[in-house]
Amino acid sequence: MAALIELGLASTQTRSETQLSAFPPLVPIERTGEFPLSFAQQRLWFLDQLEGSSATYNIPVALHFIGELNIPVLQQCMREIVRRHETLRTTFPKGQDTPIQCIHVLPLAPVEVVEFPNGALVENKAAILQDIQTEAQRPFDLATGPLLRTRVLRLGQQEHIMIFVMHHIISDGWSMGILAQELNTLYNAFIAGKPSPLPELSIQYVDFVAWQRNYLQGPRLAAHLAYWQQQLTGTPTSNLPTDHPRVISYSALGAGCSEQWPQSITQQLLTFSQQENVTLFMTLLTGLLVLLAHYSGQRDITVGTPIANRSHPALEPLVGLFVNTLALRTSLAGNPTGHELLQRVRDVTLGAYEHQDVPFEQVVEAVHPQRQSGVSPLFQVLFVLQNTATEELSLSNLQVEPLEVHTATAKFDLSIGAEINTEGLAFGIEYNTQLFERTTIQHMQTQYRALLKHLVAHAECTLADLYEVLSG
């Protein structure tokens, strides 16, 4: 599985026309003066200033092309995509008092083409994957950019690898799907000698920032923040035991551990969720909360989850950092049954969705959680379900396969992700290697799967019963 961290993989929460009418109009702003950052961008910018440049917030994608790749057409596609999306030619210098968005007229960097001397992927996989890994881990300079790098490795006349690396401050997981869609459309049009069939975008990211700041103010913002203060004040830090002690010189070094769950288990989970009147996300989260409670000895568990945060239709075709993070705090007090646990998770999740518009950064400021060096505020475990279809490229005369690439970083202690695919459910855990050993993570995966299977078969079981499954 690809990196699972805070990229906006969750599906969007569609607004009704009545709800949309309550928003201020989303229209282009005048292109004068300095452009502020969104709340999410501000957080990443300040983290970059605090921690220094690193690959922690890099988003890498690698594609393996077999066939006649037309590199000039590919370069034409990338120029057009960067022209369409202002975020892809934006840098973040410091203004008089705060950082600003500086939008450049032309792309900051062309597609780099590199002759790879050692030949085909199948013959030199280790060396090629190392080259991809090196590119994925190269940090960005937010002030000067570019914040999108595109590199093509020419392995031979009929074989190429294309590497995209973007900084999270200009993109998210949803945006990567947009890039794939537009590349697919443009390449097939340009290779046939046709003009771009893509309609011009009605707004850009800076228009969203102005809209967001206009909407989130006054009584509306106060009401949202009151909910989160009631929900999250006093949130305890996780006591999840680690293989190694947490030290002051905390690093973000990470690794991933993944496995494929068969279609049979996936279908059982989907059927069970429908019977319990919950979503698959809620069922998987319930199992995770029980697992974390078992390991930590706590009954008050908070897990973070990303949400696409593209609640207005005009935002759906834009590349940019829209993803928001929700902190889901659930009580496992008493000895609830599986049925009761699922309903608790359902209530918490639906309540969070109703108040999803407030950026996580503002929630943290309002709640004032106790800060600890090397520990993310409010939660230390992230969970995400990718429940939308992954965009598949179908380029003219080319066979395209994605290559898994990891930045070898971890933003949280644990990031747990599941993705529905044609084979069932791909499940993975990204973990901080300064805290955990791989064998521990593999054992947790095994326990989690066993727990979910028991919950599906015996929803009337109690929390104590589930603990016994984990101890067995």
Layout of secondary structure:
Blueprint: H1 17-21, H2 39-51, E1 58-67, H3 71-84, E2 90-91, E3 102-103, E4 112-115, H4 125-136, E5 148-156, E6 159-167, H5 173-191, H6 205-215, H7 218-232, E7 254-262, H8 263-275, H9 280-296, E8 300-307, E9 324-331, H10 338-354, H11 360-367, E10 381-386, E11 398-403, E12 414-421, E13 424-432, H12 438-457, H13 463-471
Parallel strand pairs: 4-5, 10-12
Antiparallel strand pairs: 1-6, 1-11, 2-3, 5-6, 7-13, 8-9, 12-13
Describe the structure.
- By secondary structure, this protein is α+β, with helices and mostly antiparallel strands.
- The model is unreliable at 1-14 (pLDDT under 50).
- Helices cover 37% and strands 19% of the residues.
- The protein folds into two domains: 17-207, Chloramphenicol Acetyltransferase, CATH 3.30.559; 224-233 and 250-471, 2-Layer Sandwich (Chloramphenicol Acetyltransferase).
- It is globular, with a radius of gyration of 23 Å.
- The two termini are 29 Å apart.
- The chain contains 13 helices and 13 strands.
